[in-house]
Amino acid sequence: MPEKPIIIATRGSALALAQANKVLADCRQKFPDLAFEIRIIKTTGDKLQTASMARIDSNLPRGLFTKELEVALLEGSADFAVHSLKDLPTELPPGLILGAVGGQRADVRDVLIYRDGRRGFKPGMALKDFPAGAVVATSSTRRKAQLLALKPNLKVIEIRGNVATRLQKLADNPDIDATVLAAAGLGRLHFTITPDGRLIGNEVPDGTLAALFDAAEMLPCVGQGAIGLETREGDTRIAKVVEGLNHRDTFQCITAERALLRGMGGGCQTPIGAYAEVVDGKTIYVRAVSFMEATVKRAEGRRSISEAAALGEELAAKLKC
């Protein structure tokens, strides 16, 4: 009797499915003798599309986009879950672990998305070129804090929905001048920024423009661009599978960033940016910024790649001083 298929749990959004299908393809390539299936699970976050993400700590549960997938793992109806790592809480339920990352990290940068012709906007503009009072829509407290640090005379409002929904809201609402999205998500949905600064792809409204932020000026959120594979602790069969998909350097970078966020006592909507890089094959370098207090705090540091977690904890201590 053949072994039962390995069930991969995922959300049902276009981006989540793009990530899950990438992991599925990698699984089938690396383990051709095993059977794999995707199981789509609707999460609390998918059901609360009108909720305020900026108030997540006060009136919404943590793990908005992960809880139901984790229940499936614990109940045994799924074998591992695929997450956008930026959505995965640093404290996981007992019995579950971050088993691996699904391949090399994608572009960590954020992208400024705006409309051609609106208020005189044109291709090739940057945030500094926007007029005073320009309205930028984002649900991320981290992005809001960094946008206002870069250009204090902006007006920042909230926006919800998946990538396609946000692009359409920008196109349809003349009161919104721009929004900010992750380059990784745009890339996984096969959207492209042309050399002249236009965003093209399926479901991209005509006249949509895009400009990449430098990671140094707009530090990404913890885990941005990485795919997390969550598994049951002690499940040796599944551990061998996800280990075959793991990208070592990305996993160590994520380990440092998540240790920093955990040390700060924050979650995915905490106004903290962090970016870890492996710079020479054996050293990990982390830059971080915190907007948790009135005074903006920044920290950076280097350690051996084997000390990724310790480096994250060290930088968290510096930011809390």
- H and E order: EHEHHHEEEEHEHEHEEEEHHEEEH
- The amount of beta strand, in percent, is 15-25%
Low-confidence stretches: 50-60
Helical proportion, percent range: 25-40%
DSSP strand count: 15
Gap from first CA to last CA: 60 Å
Question: Largest sheet at a glance?
Answer: 5 strands, mixed
Shape: globular
Which topology of the largest domain does CATH recognise? Answer: D-Maltodextrin-Binding Protein, domain 2
> What is the CATH-assigned architecture of the largest domain?
3-Layer(aba) Sandwich
> What would CATH call the homologous superfamily of the largest domain?
Periplasmic binding protein-like II
Query: Helices and strands: which structural class?
Result: alpha/beta
Can you characterise this structure?
This protein has 321 residues and is an alpha/beta fold. The protein has 3 domains: 1-103 and 226-246, D-Maltodextrin-Binding Protein, domain 2 (3-Layer(aba) Sandwich), CATH 3.40.190.10; 110-212, 3-Layer(aba) Sandwich (D-Maltodextrin-Binding Protein, domain 2), CATH 3.40.190.10; 247-321, Double Stranded RNA Binding Domain, CATH 3.30.160. Helix content is 31%, strand content 24%. The chain has 10 helices and 15 strands. It has a 5-stranded mixed beta sheet with strand order 2-1-3-12-4, with helices on both faces. Strands 7-6-8-5-11 form a 5-stranded mixed beta sheet, with helices on both faces. A hairpin with a 6-residue loop joins strand 14 and strand 15. Helix 1 (14-30) packs across helix 8. The longest helix has 17 residues, at 14-30.
